[in-house]
Amino acid sequence: MSVPSSDRPARLGALSGVLAGLLIGLPSFVEAFTGETAATSFFLALSPAFSLPLLAALHRRQVAVTGRFGETAYVANLVGLGLFGGAAYAANLVLFHFDDDVLEETLTGPTVPALIGSAVVFAVGCALFGAAMVRARVFPRVPSWSYATALPLFAFLIALPDSALTSALHIVVGATLAWLAAALWRAAGTPARPPGALMSPGRP
Description:
Blueprint: H1 8-34, H2 38-93, H3 100-106, H4 111-136, H5 141-157, H6 164-187
Helix pairs in contact: 1-2, 1-6, 2-4, 2-6, 4-5, 5-6
């Protein structure tokens, strides 16, 4: 049976989200045993780009019940993901291949403050958008809470040396994205909650 045209953005966002989750989780699982490699860094660098369609589809699904707060959270998360995704791309595909001496010369001036600022905007955006998902109760609670907590933490711990903790956090983030993507896929084709449903009494 063909997918209604109105559901195609949700389906595409869900598929993109699964891919984003896999691109974070699987390389991080490998790095837990091998350490960071050029191959794992390559796949990690691509993940934020595939997270963008997922974010847009999640927002589209719940926008009717999240109101202005949800819209603000979405914009903040979108900007943060763009900034942080660019930083992650540069770190994994460019800076990874530099010698330590070259890195010390490169990370001068406004570069480090800019990277930190990107992480801050990303963390705030994820916390706000995760809170919007928790309030809306359109998606499962566990990945919604994980989005609001694990992703902001991920933004700051990613700069730490590789360890079991950072690998585990990468895997949690990947699983969160994949879980939300799966929930979005299942929801596609069913009516979204009408405006005002968030405040309706007696909802489960």
